[in-house]
Amino acid sequence: MESRQSPEKSPLRLADVRPDLVGEIIALLGESHPGDPIVDSISSLPFHGICRNYVLTAPEGTPSPWVIVLEREQEAVFLLGVDPSRSVVTWVDVVDGRDPPTAEARQP
Questions:
Q1: Model pTM score
Q2: Beta strands across the sheet bearing 3-4
Q3: Are 71 and 65 in contact (CB under 8 A)?
Q4: DSSP 94
């Protein structure tokens, strides 16, 4: 299985790679989970690469027993894997048909 990683020196943030994606996630998560502190963490999520079409925001293999489904007009747009503490998003699955971010990120 293919796994592409971001540079080891200083991981990029997902917001550096796909600010539009981060903006959408924040808006949808804020609507469905108002006041949840996880909403505030989205803009600072690291980008650990793409693995099996999942956007990794934590090292591959990080436990993610919880999944948040974000919808627009009753259609799933994103699935967010959440760690056991329910406070950290560990991966994002873009399920609305668009391509996930690539490892070739824009430099800040």
A1: 0.81
A2: 3-4, 49-51, 54-56, 89-94, 75-82, 66-72
A3: no
A4: E
C-alpha distances (whole Å) from 16 to each of 21, 64, 75, 108 are 10, 23, 27, 6
DSSP element (H, E) containing 41: helix 37-41
Identify the three-state secondary structure at position 75.
strand
Task: Round to whole Å and give the CA distance between 49 and 5.
Answer: 4
Q: Residues 49, 6: contact at Cβ < 8 Å? A: yes
User: Which of 70, 77, 68, 79 lies closest to 97 in space, CA to CA?
Assistant: 77
**pLDDT per position as a tens digit, 49-64:** 888 889 999 999 999 9
